[in-house]
Amino acid sequence: MGGPDTLHLVSDDLEVVLLPNNGADIYGFTDRRSGIDVLFKSPWDGAVPRGEYDGSSSMERWIARYWGGWQVLLPNGGDECVENGVTWGYHGEAATRQWDVIDADEGSASLAVRLFTVPLIVRRTISLTGPVVRITETVINDSDVPLEVMWSHHPAFGAPFLDASCVIDIGCRTVITDDDAPGTFLNPGARFTWPLATDARGEQVDLSVVPGPDERRSLLAYLGDFTEGFYAITNRNLGLGFGLRWPQEIFSHAWLWQEVHSTQAWPWFRRAYAMAIEPASTIPGHGMATARSKGYAGLVLAPRASRTVDIDAVIFRGAGRVAGIDEGGTVRFGETA
After folding, report:
1. Residues 157-175, buried b or exposed e (16+ Cβ, 10 A)?
2. What pLDDT is stored for residue 232 in this prediction?
3. In a 3-state reduction of DSSP, which class is residue 91?
4. Cis peptide before 195 (omega within 30 of 0)
5. Is the Cα dihedral 43, 222, 76, 134 positive or negative?
6. pLDDT of 337 higher than 70
7. Mind listing the pLDDT tens digit for each residue in 61-106?
8. How far apart, in whole angstroms, are the C-alpha atoms of residue 253 and residue 223?
9. Which one, of 263, 267, 264, 280, lies nearest residue 57 by Cα?
10. Alpha helices of the chain — where are they, by DSSP H?
11. Percent helix, strand and coil across the chain, each to the nearest 5
12. Could you tell me which residues are beta bridge partners of residue 70?
């Protein structure tokens, strides 16, 4: 078990840093021409070495290991819950485990992990081609029992890439705010047509415009009714963007999370300027048991079955709007639908 603390993958356009011993996280995603890493880094950023903080809850333990970047969440997302007689921790087990490095070279790496709280084997290959990263991820039910799980990807973005000039283009048509913790400016359980929402004061808000670091707000909402599984975040000041494409048949929703120097208590203490758009099999982000109780199904894996996804992430240049992202990471510019 275990392996190197970091893996560095490079192409002419990108440098990607992986953490095999910390959930196989994608910790860095750097545009080599500008030197800008688009991913958020937590304020403690690796200050809690693995295993040194036990915490009183799975949420505390997960956040102690959250150094920023991009995680895969399995078999749970959000609050811990009890499934099949065992606790599925906050944001699941996969992001807290050591992964085995199966193979690695300059431009690609293959990793795998066998989970304990659920009989899943997870395999992922991350490969770079020019400005595109492809993640091929397979989840295998290693049992004779059908399993219902939450499967999500949790890429979070931060400064210097994230600023008030950033805009979001995305293939969704609706947005629903979380009915328990919607954040600071939208009412709980409200439904809108993307990108326009009405805030708690009755004023219109364009959610496709990223708030600047001085706005002090937070948000948790769910994006749905996708015509195409993609989004792009474009920094118009830098002329630099990040795009993501995923299969809708697995990830039918996306969670939208923003933390803009808002939360005064732990863990942020107003130290975080971050945004995540997270392709997800299931909503809301409060654990599998809560999702099921609210009528939302997880991903069901039949006995001995597996599901494989290809996810393409791309760095692109330009300040125009993005209409979509083709398989392979090709960005289509133009007005969004």
Report:
1. bbeebbbeebbbbbbbeeb
2. 98
3. coil
4. yes
5. negative
6. no
7. 999 999 999 999 999 999 999 999 999 999 999 999 999 999 999 9
8. 6
9. 267
10. 58-64, 288-293
11. 5, 45, 50
12. 26, 155
